[in-house]
Request: fold
Amino acid sequence: MYTLRSYQQKAVNSTLQYFRKQRHPAVIVLPTGAGKSLVIAELAKIAKGRVLVLAHVKELVEQNHLKYESYGLQAGIYSAGLNQKDHSQKVIFGSIQSVAKAKDTFFSDFTLLVIDECHRVSMEPESQYAKVIQQLKRNNPRICILGLTATPYRLGHGWIYNYALRGEIKTQELRFFKHCIYELPLEYMIRNKFLTPPVKVDIPVTSYDFSELTETGQSYTMAQLEEVLQRQRRLTPLIIKNIIDITERDQRQGVMIFSSTVKHAQEIMDHLPAGQARLVVGTTELSERDQIVDDFKRKAFKYLVNVSVLTTGFDAAHVDVIAILRPTESISLYQQIIGRGLRLETGKKDCLVLDYTGMGHSIFSPEIGDKKPASESVPVQIPCPECGFVNDFWGIVDEAGNVLEHFGRKCRGGKLNPHSYEFTPCGYRFRFKICEQCGAQNDITARDCSTCGSVLIDPDVKLKEAKLSKDAHVLTPDSIEMLERVDKKGTPYLQVKYYDYDANFVAEIHYLSNPNSLKKFSINFLRSHLRKPESKLNIRSVSEVVQIQSQLRMPAFVIARKQGKFWKITEKIFSEEL
Reply:
């Protein structure tokens, strides 16, 4: 019999509270090692009707079943991989592959469906999960559906649910799971000694350079990854030697090495000590994989190399070195990889994290969800000036950690009704595009006005047309200069010069001599140029603008059009618009 930890009990209580008021599928987010199987066991134990617990691998099915039976209760297993197909018990632990093939009679009387590693649930109607859920709902339209995961964010898909517990919009796209009803940060687990502390080691040798893959904004293929590794293959022996040196020097017990591709993994194996390393890949026979994992847990060998197959459903508590040799843009996946080494074990003080990717992820960083806009970007917290919600955005900081600039567009906060779970978004926009027809604010990348439906001007079209026009000049700024000038009447004005790489420039002027001109300057210039657009600046003079130049940013392109003998700036296009 187990006693739930306080956070596990909170997860259970949150589930009960939610399903008393709602029937939309919900998610609980618990980091690796938080004891999801205990939460599942408690919910299954107290459920009034029949319970079906699904997982995608037999190891999780077996692990969850064992935890439930540790309560002194009985449950059935429906999994071909475990050679059991029981469907008579109140609680059934099944593999999705087997349950998807079950007869119609299997699906009757269930009141609760629990899905472990629920980030694998697909919206595709032909997927196994979709078919099983459809069958269950046919028998009970009001069935409660709960998902549990440590990684609620998937590359290429985004967040797996719409609304977070703290009153945050994760995505407005259609998702199977509507609400996250409980979430526990990895940092809490480590601070309270429920997990082994990770220690990120400053690597004294070189790292792979994956920047050409990860900084393009596009998904990369396995062939492209192979090509990059092939050009840098001379680094692999140095990296593996470094892993071995650290492991032997610190007398480490178990090392997991996460490689990029099968070919890369085989190359890694060539440089590890003979008889002390084994390899698991996607095509490894299940019986062989089971034997390798069992041998590793028994410490029959020290180095376990894998290619994207042991990030979930794997538990070897003695692992005290995690070596990352594969790129990932998902902070959630990065943290889940590290989680493989954070299980508690007698005599284990910490887990060394050796990162040879050069990507600079933080162990405790939040998943931002948006594409990282620049290599120097880091997660920053930006309060909304309208509702006060603290947003996690990408941003640029100085050496002291002060935010110089952020790339957030819209506040993700809002109000969550604790009774109905209805969510009202804040709607404040940090950056926006104004519709010339109705004046409504739209997302920077919007092509149609969300209010009146009018077609918004496409910045790419602007650029192409300007480049083809004889009366237009497109300048790519390299620097910006702000000068205080005085006209013939002695009235001061601001001159802004945009220089390109060849020192050519175009300029604009702004008068700030009265309230109307100050308001016009704020709308036409400050709104788009401020590095932190929510900043409230009480600008009253040209000299004050010159003094805050460090708080202003340059556009990506400046379009000037000929008016008589002079060039007049007519449009400025910023990087986020493209």
In short: The chain is about 25% helix and 25% strand. Residues 49 and 71 are 18 Å apart (CA to CA). The radius of gyration is 28 Å.
